[in-house]
Amino acid sequence: MNSLSETKDASQVQLSRDEIKRYGRHLLMPEVGLEGQKKLKASSVLLIGAGGLGSPAALYLAAAGVGKIGVVDFDVVDHSNLQRQILHGTADIGRPKLQSAAERIHSINPYVVVDLHQVRLDSSNALEIFKNYDVIVDGTDNFPTRYLVNDACVLLHKPNVYGSIFRFEGQASVFYADKGPCYRCLYSEPPPPGLVPSCAEGGVFGVLPGIIGTVQALETIKVLLGIGNPLIGRLLLFDALKMEFRELKLRKNPDCPVCGTNPTIRELIDYEAFCGIPPAMPAEGDAKLEITVEELKMKLDGGQDVFLLDVREPHEYEIANLGGTLIPLHDLPKRVNELDSSHEIVVYCATGIRSGKAVKFLTDVGFRKVKNLVGGISAWAEKIDQTMLSY
Q: What does the buried/exposed string (b/e) look like for 304-326 if buried means 16 or more CB atoms within 10 Å of the residue's CB?
């Protein structure tokens, strides 16, 4: 496999005396050596996300001597990030993730140039951002962005080093349409909205992103140096509970709409719509299906008859709850007969995502006095009762 950095003039790159010492263990390896280290310094990598996967990838790419690391993220550091997102510390809570990421990367290696992109990645900016990097590392946690990253990489002929995690399981691959299949060759269509829970809903074992993110860093360096056998055409599956790695062979789909023989996707599309996700702003009239934590508190303080329905899991209920009846979302269809449609029902979960799905189900089966608690119990803990445990 040829190195991507061969397209650059790595011979013009010089390593300082300190860098020679820093990368000494690389220089001893014939697969890397002085020329390979210069290739790394001449290379650029873009990380999509400074979260669980982006954290270990950023640290190891910086330590390895990749010359320029770009990071795309628009979020701020939250308490719940610290269990796995090792770019950030307790003192960073409330700060933009890009700030703590840049500081941490530079603390590892001051010779790395860090480019920060504090934007929400979408079809309007992806191509412009991606074009300046050799490899794109996908550390996202949602389907619209994964398809966006894939399509942008195919259109720009960039390698897409993919990783995903959920609970105790992870996946990794290198989707590089010039040399093998792309993400759409594996997953031609996204799952129906709500079918696959996010890490915020289902949880993730803290060490898991460290393993998968490090695999992504390893594959990125192999691609940049043109060494070994990257995960092109292979999907690596990891089960942390079994400590088991498995591998699936992937083939390029000649009918793939973006990298196939006759592609139909020649520009970036609306990926939210493609994945069946409604617009962020509620449609006219949908507001009547929502209630804020302030409005709920007024109702409860006023002694109004409100039926609270918690659709989280029992172990979440044990951490913190607003009272009411616990019926996990997946049990709701078979236990809906336990609910009285004549009562006003307020449904809540951790953040409002699962409760929103529950409200849609209940309205579809005929309930008319049902509302979703916006922001869920997390919003209650932040705005109403700061003594409540939040997770």
A: eebbbbbbbbeebbeebbbebeb
Kindly give, in sequence order, each residue whose CB lies less than 8 Å from that of residue 378, ignoring residues fewer than 6 positions away. 350, 351, 390
Residue at which a domain ends, from 252, 274, 296: 274
Clarify whether residues 258 and 378 are in a common domain: no
Active-site option among 153, 182, 199, 275: 199
Mean pLDDT by 10 residues, the chain (391 residues): 60 91 96 96 97 97 98 93 95 95 97 96 96 97 94 97 96 97 93 67 88 98 97 98 97 96 93 73 57 95 93 92 93 92 93 91 92 94 90 79
Q: Are residues 138 and 190 in the same domain?
A: yes
Taking the C-alpha atoms of residue 365 and residue 78, their distance in angstroms, rounded to an integer, is 37
* Choice among 185, 256, 275, 349 that is catalytic: 349
Residue 279 located in a structural domain: no
Compute φ and ψ for 215, nearest 5 degrees: -60, -40
Domain-embedded: residue 390: no
Let me know if 275 is a catalytic residue.
no
Residues 200 and 321 in one domain: no
Q: Provide the domain limits for residue 128.
A: 4-274
CATH number at residue 342: 3.40.250.10
Cβ 4 vs Cβ 43: under 8 Å: yes
349 is annotated as an active-site residue = yes
